[in-house]
Amino acid sequence: MSQGFSGAHARTLVDAIFHEKDQKLLEEFRKRLERMDRRAQLAAACGIHDEAVLDRLIELNIDPETLAAMTVVPLIQVAWADGKVQPEERQAIIKAAQESGVESRDGHYPLLEYWLDEKPGREMLEAWEHYIRALCRQLTPEEIAELKRDVMTLARKVAQAAGGMLGIKSKISKAERRVLDELEKSFAA
Length: 189
Prior knowledge:
The structure is a single chain. The protein is mainly α. It has one domain (1-189). Helix content is 70%, strand content 0%. The protein is built from eight helices and no strands. It has helices at residues 8-46, 51-59, 64-79, 87-99, 110-117, 122-136, 141-161, 174-185.
């Protein structure tokens, strides 16, 4: 006479099934937490708060450091457009870097400060443009618009920082306008 699958055997099977299911749920929970943490890091680095855009950046393996660099390079280019970085532009860039999650070393930003003192070569902007174009080919039009808006808003703030007369910060020089136009073209995939 065969014994049915009950009692201790059934309990072991049920425990094993639920243990496996619990492990999967736990793993999914950990992944959600990790994704939330990555979203928060990316949001701090770029100012984008749209979860769909942040999730897409995570899917593309874009880390906060890359995003921070992607944000800072255009600002440096705008600041150097007139041939000299003005103190107000310098302040605006340091503030943007801080808000973008760029880590300081004892209150200093060695590479950023070097770029503010010594004009970077054209190849830095070209690398940024290539990166943005490649990234835009992988994003939806809405995601591109969001990224473009965020980057260009910061770049315009830098351009406006040293412009204007009588304390009105609104004038953007022709050289800065050319750089802004060049940056904007990079978002056309």
